[in-house]
Write a structure and sequence with these properties.
The protein is α+β, with helices and mostly antiparallel strands. The protein has 14 helices and ten strands. Strands 4-3-2-1-5 form a five-stranded antiparallel beta sheet, with no helix packed on it. Strands 6-7-8-10-9 form a five-stranded mixed beta sheet.
Amino acid sequence: MRPCAVAMILWINSSALAEEPQELMVRADGQTFIGLPIHWGANQALLLDATGRLHNWKLENVAEFHLRDTPFRPESPAAARARVQRELGRGFRIEIVGPYVLATPIQSTSRWRERFVALYGGFLRWGAQRGWSLRRPDFPLVVVEFPSESDFRQAAAQEGVSLPPTAVGCYLPASNRCVLYTLSRDAGGTAETEATVVHEAVHQLAFNTGVHSRTATNPLWFVEGLATMFEIPAVYDLRAGKRGQADQLHGYYLRVFQRGGGSTSELAGRLRRLVESDAMFSVETEQAYGLSWALTFYLTQRHAAATARYVRRLAERKFGDVSAAQRRDDFIASFGRPPEHFAGPLHRYFSQQSLGNGN
């Protein structure tokens, strides 16, 4: 099962919002938009509205814009709940749960409330233990469970996201929401469904708590490696792991990594390609996920302070793409060595690990 690709979503930090910047009104593509200007370059403009949705235009399509006297404020959870209810209709139950606005079909029993609460608290705790400066989300995190696969796919298609055939959950970067549907047990649901939904929910959290870049392209190995780690409940839920690190290993991706085999020099080459470019995800998808999981798990376990530096460095990137040389420089500046240096340590580290129960 493959999670959908993650695109760039922008995050507004709390200190910026505390200054109450003025709203900007933009007329573009025949519509009027109001929100906070994030980027206004020579060719492109980005605006974040009060719901957390990102709007992106070529400047040539912007007919008019001006600042309003009204300060920009994110939508409240109550307003988000009412908006989602209007959008989805009476067939959905809408709940406010911590930072989340959860929408569930009336006829089904919500099975995500407890899992999302545990994930949110566990994600913040996990990051704090490793020195990450995480912030609480500025916008309500909307999660919609659809009653059917067709509804789920339609929601993704409306935002231009193409899903793989086996997808059951996806983070939609434009609207900043997660959408999902739950497979029946007969169709192979629950455990795999839950892992994929948690994976996508971690994307949503990471892009709303300051982990990933505010304005620049994020290295996909770190985006996907982090989310893949959290597919294992013991990583974030203290009730799920009794053997510590052994229970946090991802059995499937550990085997993918081990099957990759090859010499240390071959692994070194793959690590270099993974860090410098996202191309491996297109041509060797499973290997890319397995290697991303292994590298992220190892670095956050054995080089926590350096990983925290890496997170801070990525967050400083400005708007736009990042070259292979810049990606490599970011890694070396944070970890003190190039990615290929970690080929030997990765081989040794994962040859010494044993899986906990349930992996």
